[in-house]
Amino acid sequence: MSDTPERDASIRRVLGPDEPELGCEECFDELDRYVELELAGARADEEVPGMRAHFEGCPACREDYLSLRALVESDASG
Ligand SMILES: [Zn+2]
Q1: Which of 24, 42, 55, 67 supports an S-S bond with 37, CB 3.0-4.6 Å?
Q2: Which residues are in the CB-under-5-Å shell of ion ligand 1?
Q3: H-helix or E-strand spanning residue 49
């Protein structure tokens, strides 16, 4: 039954407790919407579950996110 408890535990650690995590492609698809929601003061993390978890594990997408957000912010104020 539980002959590999350690492996189960490590899988669970990778996937997180119950938080879904997006892949890079889904992340890219939702990035615009996520940034718009966030800048609009909406609950972006609830609208796009797994996004923040993905940024934590994926520096490349976090970079994309940060630069897109900076771009949209400067657009909005200009
Ligand atoms: Zn990614």
Answers
A1: 42
A2: 24, 27, 58, 61
A3: none
CA 34–ligand 1 middle distance (angstroms): 14
Residue 22 C-alpha to ligand 1 middle, in angstroms? 8
Secondary structure, 3-state, 28-43: HHHHHHHHHHHHCCCC
C-alpha distances in Å from residue 51, one per residue of 7, 41, 77: 26, 16, 25
Q: How far is the CA of 45 from the centre of ligand 1 (A)?
A: 16
Ligand 1 center from residue 7 Cα (angstroms): 24
Alpha-carbon distance of 12 to 31, in angstroms, equals 26
Distance, in Å, from the CA atom of 31 to the CA atom of 67, rounded to the nearest integer, reads 11
DSSP code, position 22? -
